[in-house]
Structures are given as structure tokens and as C-alpha cells.
């Protein structure tokens, strides 16, 4: 595992002094395909299922950041063995035709050799359909995480605005925050059936936004919530994750209108309506070309080798 660090208070071309707090850590991990077995399947909300994977291949599995994600390779037939990519010299070679989807690591227990993945249920995507039919004993291929983008818990406050595809990452992040740090959380879901408990030592102010009969990715609920929030004074961090096009304008808003520094916010398109296996690096490229400037987007923790799309279930783009 290799790492680099970024200090938010110091210009990129200046060395960090002894008083500087490292606020962002970028890590890369060895790339290894793993064949795992479904150990448990649990419906945790009306439209979300938690799949627990297990296997000795998890002995050297590494995950350190809330947004860490893996590629899932699913069998083409019920009870079958998924085709896995070949990795040579720490790179994925060949097998680009293989169908896979990226998902956030929700829980990992090294001692028990278990890895939990939360998946949104829907019938129009391969992963969503598989999640609704997964059974104990099924085989699943896993690749990654290739990289970790770790936002160290040194900020004065946080604002999270996510839809259900980013809810597993948000929940994991909240569990890691220090006691009493103020966090404003907005979560867009279909209805009350999708509400999940959020545990944290932080001081949480959580608002659930229900789109009801509207399709995922068609509302401005998250964008309106962020724009309607009076951000506190001090050095804070805003994280927005959901359907790429619906949240894209928030990059410009947070940089140009609010005046946040480039390392004080991350607007991450976890999926794009109508696009299967959306690559959020495309969003980063668009942000760099946007008049708002290249500072509008943070580097992400994933790499093309690990899987080039964001860790999302993609309600309408899976």
C-alpha cells in the first residue's frame, strides 16, 4: 500500500510545515481478484439488501476509507461461477468485456473474513436483479479496492447530501467521525420504507427527503437542500453524491457562490440516469473543463484499474 497526503491549508507548491495537519490522504492498494461466497442476505430496507460475502481470499483485503469500493463480478447463470479478470503486474489485463458493477464496502471484518455490501433493489439492472435473488452459497467475484480517498476527520463541520446509492458510504463515514463534530445530513430516498438508522458519535442533524412517486435522478431535492443550507463559519467539508447530472451544478455553486476551496468539497456522480456502469472520472474531466475551474473537483479514491465507475447501485443506470 502506498500513500500521498494533501494539506488543505497550504498551496500545492509549498511544503507542509510541522504545524500542518494532513487533511486528505490518497492510498493505492495491490490489485487482486477474489472469489467469494455469499454467507448471508438481509433485507435492511424496503429497497435495499445487505449481502455478506466470505472467503479466505479476504485475509489480505484492505479498506480504509468510507468511499472505498469494489467491482462485483456476478455469475451469468444462477448458481454459476463468475468469470474473473486476469491481473498481471498489479494491472487488470484483458477481460474488459466482463460485466461488473462497483459497490461501496459497508462493513469488513478481517478476523471473521466477511465483507458486507449494501445494494439497491431494482429490476432493470443486472446487479439490482441479482441482489433480489442472491442466495447463500452463490459465488461472487470481487476486485479492489484499488485506491482510497481518505478525508481525515479534522474539519470543523460537515455537510453530507446523498441519495440511496451513496447511503452506505455516508453511513460508514458517519460512524468514523469524532464525537460532537456537527454534521448536517440530507438523504434522498423513495419513501419512509427506505429510511435507515444512522449511527455516529458526531452531532447529527439528519433530514430525509422523499421523492415519492418521482423517478430517481429526476428531482432537485439534494441540490435545493444544499443551496438552502447556511454553512457554518470555520473550515468545513461538503460532500454531495448521487445522480451525476442532477448534482453537477453544485460544483459551480460551492466554488463560485459559496467560495469553498477545492479541497473543502466533493461533488461525486455515483450514477448517471440512463447510463450503465457510469464512469465518474468523466464527471471529473467535465469539472476540469468547466469555467468554474479545475479546482471544482477533488481527486477520487478509485482508479481505472480498480474499476472506473463510482461505487453505486445506479437506480436507473445499472
TrEMBL record:
PROSITE patterns: FAD_FR
Gene3D superfamilies, A to Z: Nucleotide-binding domain of ferredoxin-NADP reductase (FNR) module (3.40.50.80), Translation factors (2.40.30.10)
GO molecular function: oxidoreductase activity
Pfam families: FAD_binding_9 (PF08021), SIP (PF04954)
Domain FAD-binding FR-type: 31-152
Coiled coil (residue ranges): none
InterPro entries assigned to the protein according to its UniProt record, in alphabetical order: FAD-bd_FR_type (IPR017927), FNR_nucleotide-bd (IPR039261), Riboflavin_synthase-like_b-brl (IPR017938), SIP_FAD-bd (IPR013113), SIP_fam (IPR039374), SIP_rossman_dom (IPR007037)
Low complexity bias spans: 290-318
Location of region: Disordered: 277-318
Protein name per Swiss-Prot or TrEMBL: Vibriobactin utilization protein ViuB
Organism name: Oerskovia enterophila
Amino acid at each position: 500500500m502506498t500513500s500521498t497526503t494533501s494539506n488543505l491549508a497550504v498551496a500545492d507548491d509549498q511544503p507542509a510545515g510541522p504545524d500542518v495537519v494532513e487533511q486528505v490522504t490518497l492510498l493505492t492498494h495491490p490489485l487482486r481478484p477474489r472469489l467469494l461466497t455469499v454467507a448471508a442476505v438481509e433485507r435492511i430496507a424496503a429497497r435495499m439488501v445487505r449481502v455478506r460475502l466470505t472467503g479466505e481470499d479476504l485475509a489480505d483485503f484492505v479498506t480504509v476509507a468510507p468511499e472505498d469500493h469494489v467491482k462485483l463480478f456476478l455469475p451469468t447463470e444462477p448458481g454459476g461461477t463468475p468469470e474473473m479478470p486476469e491481473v498481471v503486474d498489479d494491472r487488470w489485463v484483458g477481460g474488459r468485456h466482463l460485466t461488473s458493477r462497483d459497490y461501496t464496502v459497508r462493513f469488513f471484518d478481517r478476523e471473521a473474513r466477511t465483507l458486507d455490501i449494501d445494494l439497491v433493489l431494482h429490476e432493470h439492472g443486472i446487479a439490482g436483479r441479482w441482489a433480489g435473488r442472491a442466495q447463500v452459497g452463490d459465488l461472487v467475484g470481487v476486485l479492489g479496492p484499488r485506491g482510497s480517498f481518505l478525508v481525515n476527520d479534522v474539519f470543523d463541520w460537515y455537510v453530507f447530501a446523498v441519495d440511496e446509492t451513496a447511503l452506505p458510504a455516508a453511513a460508514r463515514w458517519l460512524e468514523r467521525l469524532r464525537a460532537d463534530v456537527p454534521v448536517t445530513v440530507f438523504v434522498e430516498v423513495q419513501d419512509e420504507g427506505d429510511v435507515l438508522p444512522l449511527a455516529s458519535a458526531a452531532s447529527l442533524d439528519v433530514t430525509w427527503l422523499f421523492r415519492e412517486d418521482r423517478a430517481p435522478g429526476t428531482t432537485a431535492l439534494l441540490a435545493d437542500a444544499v443551496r438552502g443550507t447556511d454553512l457554518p463559519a470555520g473550515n468545513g467539508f461538503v460532500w454531495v453524491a448521487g445522480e451525476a447530472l442532477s448534482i453537477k451544478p453544485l460544483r459551480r455553486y460551492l466554488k463560485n457562490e459559496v467560495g469553498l476551496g477545492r479541497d473543502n468539497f466533493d461533488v461525486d456522480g455515483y450514477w448517471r440516469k440512463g447510463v450503465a456502469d457510469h464512469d465518474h472520472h468523466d464527471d471529473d474531466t467535465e469539472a476540469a473543463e468547466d469555467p468554474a475551474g479545475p479546482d471544482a473537483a477533488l481527486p477520487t479514491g478509485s482508479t481505472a484499474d480498480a474499476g472506473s465507475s463510482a461505487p453505486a447501485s445506479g437506480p436507473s443506470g445499472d
